[in-house]
Amino acid sequence: MSVQVRDTGNPFKSSVTTLIIAVTDEDDSDPVFQHDIYEITVMENATGSLNTSPAAILAYDQDFGINQTLAYSLQEASAIPTDLSDLLDYFSIDGQTGELSLVRGLDREVVHDVTLIIKAEQANNNVRSAEARVYIVVQDANDNRPEMSASQYQATVVENAPSGSPVLTVTASDKDEGGNAMFMYVLEPSAAFTIDGTTGQVTVSNSSILDRETNNEFTLQVYVVETNTTEKYRSPTSTVLITLLDENDNNPTFTAEIYHANVAQDAANGAVLTQVVATDPDSGSNGEIRYSIIFASDNGKDKFTISADGNITVSGRLDANTVDSYVLVIMAADRGTASRETTAVVIINVINVNSTNEGGTDTNAIIIAVVVCVVVVLAIITTAVVLLKRRRAANENPEENHSSNMELENVVSSS
């Protein structure tokens, strides 16, 4: 600055000089960070120095003439979705340089994102300070194995269920994310059943194996294995227990094709002559058997009855001089919705307690021959009726219908 001085004479006299003013800085400004927000991406479980974006952490004193030394420190830490009480202890910051470090690895399955508040304050006056935020995103590492939702699964399916029939759906999960959480389902052994590797749905793959009378229960193993990782982690194995429900697919079977019994002509009503026994491997009502007399020679239905347990008893007056032998055809039928049945023959000889019948042997031989013919005819008729029922029920299944037609043709040709 130029300063002039002059007198009041005329003409005046003057002199000029230069004035220099020096302004001394006063500590009246707070420090400031180069950026208000810094960002970091870190792999879970990693430790060490952190690289911030868009630049390294740096603050400066706005009082340039003084340019006081700054000290950096961590103030607060918060996280999503879980806010750990000791989260601040996972980090450290160099008080002189502001370099930020992770001293403990973060678990992404617990903490996804972290927000830090850092502070820079003047070493000579901690009132003069500034703050900035650091946003940290934790990236997933494949540090978890997939897990099945249960250690055991149970299901039921009707025996002979067609291939493709759904049985159950199992589920699994992986705490990791993205490609680290991709897996496929595996079922072992898989002869009768198969599993969709993506959905976990178990279906029938071979219905011919599903015979409850041969094997009423299947125990399988299921697990998942990672498909998009180098580790290919596999889950612990779970058990799948599949129980077959009964279908009425078996005929009752008598213990004999022909039963024999002798009875005195003076036997009282209610006297037990013999017992016929039939069995059915099906379960429930499909295996419950009821007996009935469907044919009796010489009005034998008036002379004999059969009980629920197969006991044949006298129910009418017998006279060996009039009829010395009866032929009964007994039917055993199950109680299934579509009942299945079979037959057996009972030959009853009436004994005259007052005399012997010399021609009885020849008569019995003739009766047996007649009975055999009757049994053969009834067996053919019964089989044909059963096959016709199957044929009607199989209209919606061409393969089963074709099989029934072949069986029916075989029966007719054999007769």
Features:
2 helices, mainly beta, single chain, Immunoglobulin-like, 40% strand, 4-stranded mixed β-sheet, 29 strands, 415 residues
Polypeptide structure, described:
Helices cover 12% and strands 40% of the residues. It is mainly beta and 415 residues long. A four-stranded mixed β-sheet has the order 4-11-10-7, with no helix packed on it. It has a four-stranded mixed β-sheet with strand order 13-20-19-16, with no helix packed on it. α1 (360-393) packs antiparallel against α2. It starts with a strand and ends with a helix.
As for the CATH topology of the largest domain, it is: Immunoglobulin-like
- The count of β-strands is 29
The helix content is 10-25%
Q: Give the termini separation.
A: 139 Å
Portion in beta strands? 35-45%
Q: Helical region count?
A: 2
Give the uncertain stretches in residue-range form. 356-360, 398-415
CATH architecture of the largest domain: Sandwich
Identify the overall geometry.
rod-shaped
- Main sheet record: 4 strands, mixed
Number of domains: 3
Strand order of the largest sheet: 4-11-10-7
Rounded Rg: 50 Å
| Residue-averaged pLDDT | 88
Specify the structural class.
Answer: mainly beta
CATH C-level category of the largest domain: Mainly Beta
Looking at this structure, what is the CATH superfamily of the largest domain? Cadherins
